[in-house]
Design goal:
Order of helices and strands: HEHHEEEHEEEE
Number of domains: 1
Helix content: 25-40%
Radius of gyration: 17 Å
Shape: elongated
Number of helices: 4
Structural class: alpha+beta
Strand content: 25-35%
Largest sheet: 6 strands, antiparallel
């Protein structure tokens, strides 16, 4: 799998050897720009994709209780069009597919800040990690069917939404 992804990035002109930063942001300024950018992606994704819809499409899918985390590496061009995605850390096939689906349904993404953009053989691009975490209610070690995800186990607990963050 990693060979295929590596080859895909090479064919797209996204190898580390072929890129250089236009006007790089560093340190806190880079992290702040990245955090703001991912927040804008989160808003875009939430407006185009809902996890409950995925659960209704796969009602008998079983997920482990607790946090289920998928980390995607997303590459966009200077207009926010998605060039490629790769699963860096997997929560399992269903959630990985849904994380990628969420990103693609939200395309084009907001324009990346100039300090996060790079020049490559494909033009100006930006690459960044996005972490999707789905919190499944229940005791750790237990399993829950997707059709029950939007129903709390008791009145004091509610299913937490998908959260997005930057991988540090």
């Amino acid at each position: 799998m990693k060979k295929i992804v590596g080859m895909m990035f090479f064919l797209l002109g996204l190898s580390c050897c072929q890129t250089h930063t236009l006007k790089p942001l560093v340190g806190d300024a880079r992290q702040q720009a990245l955090n703001q950018y991912v927040k804008s992606i989160e808003q875009q994704v939430v407006s185009h994709w809902q996890l409950k819809d995925a659960f209704s499409e796969y009602p008998y899918k079983i997920l482990p209780a607790g946090p289920n985390k998928t980390i995607l590496w997303v590459v966009v061009d200077q207009l926010g069009d998605i060039i490629a995605t790769d699963v860096v850390e997997s929560a399992g096939g269903f959630l990985d597919r849904e994380a990628q689906r969420a990103i693609y349904l939200s395309s084009p993404l907001p324009t990346p800040p100039e300090g996060l953009q790079y020049q490559s053989s494909r033009g100006i691009i930006a690459g960044f990690p996005v972490q999707f975490v789905v919190h499944v209610e229940g005791a750790l070690g237990t399993l829950r069917q997707a059709r029950f995800m939007n129903q709390p186990l008791n009145k004091t607990m509610a299913v937490e939404p998908v959260s997005f963050s930057i991988v540090q």
